[in-house]
Specification:
Helices cover 93% and strands 0% of the residues. It has 45 residues and is an all-alpha fold. The longest helix is centred in the middle third of the chain and has 42 residues. It starts with a helix and ends with a helix.
Length: 45
């Protein structure tokens, strides 16, 4: 594999990892908020 092709592939992989980290962190934040809201509702009842 040529070095140009290897560099391009490495950049694509790094970008894909970056994007998946962003989406995963968004989901984790939403999960935490949902769990917190559920617990608060339970405590009120």
């Amino acid at each position: 594999m040529s070095s140009k092709r290897a560099m391009r592939q490495a950049q694509k992989q790094a970008y894909a990892k970056h994007r998946s980290n962003i989406t995963n962190s968004k989901f984790e934040i939403k999960k935490k908020l949902l769990l917190k809201n559920k617990q608060e509702k339970k405590n009120k009842n």
